[in-house]
Amino acid sequence: MSEEFQYQSGFGGYLQTEALPNALPHGQNSPQKPAYGLYAEQLSGSAFTRPRSHNLRTWLYRILPSVSHLSFQPLKNMTLAQDSNQLYAIPNQLRWDPLADPTQKQSFIAGCQTLIQNGNPLVQEGAAIHLYTANENMNDDFFYSADGEWLIVPYLGRLTLKTEFGIITLAPSEIAVIPRGVKFQVELIDPIIKGYICENFGAPFGLPDLGPIGSNGLASPRDFLFPTAHFEDKTGTFNIICKYANKLWQAQTNHAPLDVVAWHGNYAPYKYDLRLFNTINTVSFDHCDPSIFTVLTSATATPGLANLDFVIFPERWMVAEHTFRPPYYHRNIMSEYMGLIHGHYDAKNEGFLPGGGSLHNCMSSHGPDGDTAEKGMHETLLPIKQENTLAFMFESRLPWQITEFGMQTSALQKSYQDCWQNIPKFFNQKS
């Protein structure tokens, strides 16, 4: 897709960009009087005293400081506000169909539904998964989450993310991450947009260590794109919607908040094209663990134990010999929510659709359905390319809890368990 807007590349690097010449000061982050009559404001995504390699902060040079708004008031009747007493923790395997298209006008935030959640944003651990459907621009509304960063995964329709840092266009097979606290607005490129959101309450996403893989493979830092500065100088009546402690709040302001003329730092929104992922796979026998498909990870204090992993299952060659090639049956300490961006997922013969999702919680067994298992045990193992597929997984160390919406929606499949009832029995003591 051709891009109208410019980007900077490089994950984790220190970036700088300005929409007007010499808007960035030299030698002093907060000068007495910044150029163009701007205000200097620092946005910190980590504690001030974190080691330099983990310290996240950006200096913004803006027309008015973020504090120039009225008091926040509770905003009710929004589907992102969740009551922790109405979350269901159950061991059953669950699967949902895609949400129906909206029947009336609704913007991106109004069209978000929280499906599952774990942890607690007040202690900065866990995550929530939302689904969005929208057919209208956000117009005079702007949003930010104080609870966590937003990983946006579209599967239908293109959209524009207008952020404080600049503009990002997003299409299916691409993802975007909006850091905690960053204001943004969504405009539609196509008539309807639909997709998934993972709101990460824990440590910000980073690239996983490569270990024995070495210096190359998986997602390359150079393929992550960051927006260049782009500002609006608009007056009027605008609404700032804030998600704070799992509740929604709203404040009015007389100046549109996307007024950053220049910025420098390493805490900023970014996008990534999943088609650039360099898949690592086996060429002998057995499976690599699914962790080999990790794009981004939210770390914890325990090495190797993630608060959250974002994993994809893209097109790839299947080469292994003497191997059951479909995803093997397993039970897992981690809890897995899977979604499908396009195509067909190789572990299920039917029922798992783009825009849908499945949930396999901690120690809930899962794997291929009976037809897929029988085919996998008897097929001739020639090298084949798994094509027309892009599935993903939000994997968490904490069990996912289902919201009232997730339990009551007509999209919840009532017969998901049936896909494992026809698993053939081949046991023969004489063989």
UniProtKB/TrEMBL annotation:
<protein>
    <recommendedName>
        <fullName>Homogentisate 1,2-dioxygenase</fullName>
        <ecNumber>1.13.11.5</ecNumber>
    </recommendedName>
</protein>
<feature type="domain" description="Homogentisate 1,2-dioxygenase N-terminal">
    <location>
        <begin position="6"/>
        <end position="274"/>
    </location>
</feature>
<dbReference type="GO" id="GO:0006559">
    <property type="term" value="P:L-phenylalanine catabolic process"/>
</dbReference>
<keyword id="KW-0223">Dioxygenase</keyword>
<feature type="active site" description="Proton acceptor">
    <location>
        <position position="287"/>
    </location>
</feature>
<feature type="binding site">
    <location>
        <position position="366"/>
    </location>
    <ligand>
        <name>homogentisate</name>
    </ligand>
</feature>
<feature type="binding site">
    <location>
        <position position="330"/>
    </location>
    <ligand>
        <name>Fe cation</name>
    </ligand>
</feature>
<keyword id="KW-0585">Phenylalanine catabolism</keyword>
<keyword id="KW-0828">Tyrosine catabolism</keyword>
<dbReference type="InterPro" id="IPR046451">
    <property type="entry name" value="HgmA_C"/>
</dbReference>
<dbReference type="InterPro" id="IPR011051">
    <property type="entry name" value="RmlC_Cupin_sf"/>
</dbReference>
<keyword id="KW-0560">Oxidoreductase</keyword>
<dbReference type="InterPro" id="IPR046452">
    <property type="entry name" value="HgmA_N"/>
</dbReference>
<feature type="domain" description="Homogentisate 1,2-dioxygenase C-terminal">
    <location>
        <begin position="276"/>
        <end position="425"/>
    </location>
</feature>
<dbReference type="Pfam" id="PF04209">
    <property type="entry name" value="HgmA_C"/>
</dbReference>
<dbReference type="GO" id="GO:0006572">
    <property type="term" value="P:L-tyrosine catabolic process"/>
</dbReference>
<feature type="binding site">
    <location>
        <position position="336"/>
    </location>
    <ligand>
        <name>Fe cation</name>
    </ligand>
</feature>
<dbReference type="GO" id="GO:0046872">
    <property type="term" value="F:metal ion binding"/>
</dbReference>
<dbReference type="GO" id="GO:0004411">
    <property type="term" value="F:homogentisate 1,2-dioxygenase activity"/>
</dbReference>
<keyword id="KW-0479">Metal-binding</keyword>
<dbReference type="InterPro" id="IPR014710">
    <property type="entry name" value="RmlC-like_jellyroll"/>
</dbReference>
<dbReference type="GO" id="GO:0005737">
    <property type="term" value="C:cytoplasm"/>
</dbReference>
<keyword id="KW-0408">Iron</keyword>
<feature type="binding site">
    <location>
        <position position="366"/>
    </location>
    <ligand>
        <name>Fe cation</name>
    </ligand>
</feature>
<comment type="similarity">
    <text>Belongs to the homogentisate dioxygenase family.</text>
</comment>
<feature type="binding site">
    <location>
        <position position="345"/>
    </location>
    <ligand>
        <name>homogentisate</name>
    </ligand>
</feature>
<dbReference type="Pfam" id="PF20510">
    <property type="entry name" value="HgmA_N"/>
</dbReference>
<dbReference type="InterPro" id="IPR005708">
    <property type="entry name" value="Homogentis_dOase"/>
</dbReference>
